[in-house]
């Protein structure tokens, strides 16, 4: 049993009750790991006494930031009840997290061959004649708006040259071949994509003649070709010092006119063009492309289209089409569906194909050399994975920070260089298969409208982070330095996304993520870093990462109070899944505060407050009824548990709906609902209220909360009715009647105003004892 002074010090303080900061003993209990660079270490870990100058963010506020800023891939749903309020909303965290965890672990299947024999356009890098059989097969499944094709044909007939611009894998190459096919061009030749634009006209020669001077095959007796010739220059390589200029096309046009030939050039969105008229290619609807390919594939076994219709109605097909897949993936999917219709593959292969396609795309991004995808663009892809659905400007800013770290890894002796200008938002997002949009972002000042960016497939961020961490270990040092810098950022969104990124890495490779990132954060002297560790462990658990509860159990019993702090905070967030075990761990931690307490000044007030806030969050979680029952059961165990229970309950009573100053008190709303339903909480909540009011060391805090509830009731009829139902249950003795009666008779209004009228009305509800 502690001394009275120590007992007073042991009371878990309310969340908003000011207190001295922690005593800074963290540095003596264990040392955080140093980073490779001394300057980075100082920024990441802080000095020995930095904790004395930093106040920890309250558990409730930290929980709100985690909910507001966690990525959509974590599937926290409407954010209403993740480790929090039972008033409204549904629980989405754990079940959705398991789905995300499955995505992170991958399909465990590799399919790298996208070319569909007879149905894919020839390679853009190939040079030579396209077989007529290939053109015929492509024509059988080619889909495009007829008015679009006609407009392009009119332009091609007139100008002889057409430049089509579009993103990769949108069907622009196939469209080029089909335009020439519609014109009746034969033969059709593909030109080398490395053709120098200045020598483009030299590629078009006069029609060949036979050695004896007779017309070549395909030509008339007069030497005129029976059909116009066609040329395709796909994915032309251009550079700033080698652009495609207008006069290059004019020279080519003269040669093409003489030869009676046509040329279609396809370029990407980043091509360097000067005064060149360009037509933007819009890809056809994937559903139409899939249907066309299926009609071709299953024509022999189709009964008036019934087989195609049945395949298109499959739930997995609907899911696939909702994912904005590229046309090459659609064509490959059609091939797979054809095999499925023939009984050659199982239904599981159809279900897995969408994820496999995404995995292959991500692997392609990072396997490409810098001439195809620059290191800066790869850094942006990683940053977008971390900040998916976040502000674009923030993502771009922090992607350049990662780019610097990657340059240091790639060229250790040279200074990192980041171009200030020269990036095109649209082209960058097109490469990433992402989109930009306008939406509100949560901030400490309220919602703020921002330009945001996100992958079109929400699974991309999870797959990408796994690929970078496990498939490209050389990038780990830069990624770790980047994450440590993010954890030190002043913006809650940035710190939360650092945590969510590490959670994905932990789901993939827990030992490495713990050793390299999470444990250094958890043993930091700075509360900010430890809170990032808390969030990383919490989100990792929601992703179904194994052994997180075991880690917390060990840390909560350890000697390092920094690790105990992290464990307590994490229990508050994930303990609702296992409330009995979480509360048992919190009780053990509370008892340890009193163990061997020779000097009351040594009492860890900071940890006592954290324990109380953890209990408060659990009381306001979806496991609220189970938590309340546990608290009632163990209240008389001993003084540490009594103080923990009462402090946590009073702290929970301070919270209101949406954290509004005059919002409906959450515990009061819980009581009103339970009283209507006749549940156990209708007795448990008054029981703990009476215990708090009758505890000399907690009475003042409890009365302060009741005073706040009365002021809220003065503005809210619903709160007044709920309070009118609760107050009579708090009076079982004359002393309790006198205490509450005195409060209602003497309490002033806000800012010293006259007593609120609701106080007199509530006074009449108290039963005389």
UniProtKB/TrEMBL annotation:
UniProt cross-references to InterPro entries, sorted A to Z: ARM-type_fold
Record field: compositional bias (Basic and acidic residues): 23-55, 62-71
Positions with biased composition (Low complexity): 9-22, 206-225
Chain intervals for the UniProt region annotation (Disordered): 1-89, 194-225
Domain of life where this protein originates: Bacteria
Alphabetized SUPFAM superfamilies for the sequence: ARM repeat
Protein name per its UniProtKB record: LigA protein
